[in-house]
Each structure stands twice: as structure tokens, then as C-alpha cells.
Design goal:
Elements: H1 12-22, H2 29-41, H3 48-64, H4 72-99, H5 105-117, H6 121-132, H7 141-149, H8 156-169, H9 177-189
Amino acid sequence: PPELSILNNCSPSQLEGLCSFLQLSTCPEPFLVRFCSWLLALSPDLSYTSAAILAEQLFLRRVLSLTQPPSRHLMAALTSFCSKYSHPFCRVLVAAVLQEPGEGAEQTKLMCELVEECLEPHSVRLVLSQVLEVPLSEKLLPVLQAVLGRQEVLPPELLDLLVLTLCRQAPAFATSLNYARLVTAVLTVCQSQVS
């Protein structure tokens, strides 16, 4: 709809107010899918700040409250949004999931799925750097595994940080099967870079 061009003309506070007025954080998921498809067609593209605000308003509450796998509508909306605005999405959503205390099993599975199937290589590297900024936990090991599963060539500084983190954390994961799998994956995927 032509009315959506207003999203490009709002200040951040106006956009937050508009999202609140439209109740985007609680709108029905089928509408969410339609709204995200409209965002893809928007020209010019949203600014980074506007996309980050929309990522937070549209998805943050929904993702953090997941207690079972996301519905197909929510997955379709997430995939659609990530296809064009993956960088602001990762900055907002991945950061929030990483800081969330507790197991967060559904959130972890969702992050793995997004890394494996939706995100562009530069966004996968962003996810890796975000994971390495927080203390490593059992919950985050599958996310690192998903990043390595993409078979992307990692920048040397990021690979060094990953190896250093795994070495430092080894005593804490002495009995972890996920940790053992992750180390094996690093040695397999990055063998030309790891001495």
C-alpha cells in the first residue's frame, strides 16, 4: 500500500509510536506475513534504524516468548524480513536471545534454523561475533555448530577468537558432547586455517 511510504519518513520515535498505535507487536501472525511482504516491496529500502525498530516491534516479544516451535506464519514472516534486513534483525533479535537467561531451547533452535537457512554470509559472521561476545553456554553450542555448518570461510580474527574461546572454555565443557562435536567441526571445516 502507498501509505507504507510513511515508514521511510518517520523519525525513530515516530516509528515506535506508529508501531505501538498499530499494535504490530501483537498483530495476528497471518497479517504479520503480509506486512513483511509489503516491507520487501517498499522502495526505497528502509534505513538501518527503521528496520531495527521494526524487527524489535514485530518479532522480539514473539520470539522471546516461544515455548514451542514457531508457527509456519511466524517462520514465513521471519524468513521474509531476514531476506532483506538480516543485519538489523541480527543486531536486535540475536542480541536479545543471547542475553536471555535460562535454557531458551526454542529460541536456540530458531537461531540455528535462521543461520542454516536464511541469513546471508555477512550476517552469519555477525551472529558468530555476537555469540563470542557473551560467556559460552551449552545453549549456545548448537548455534556455533550451525555457523560452522554453513561452510563459510571465516575471517582470521574471528576464527582466532573462536579457537581461543573454545580453548579457554574447555575445562567447563569436559563432559559435553555438544562441545566435542563443535571442536571436531572446527578442526574439520577450518582445517586449512587451524594449526
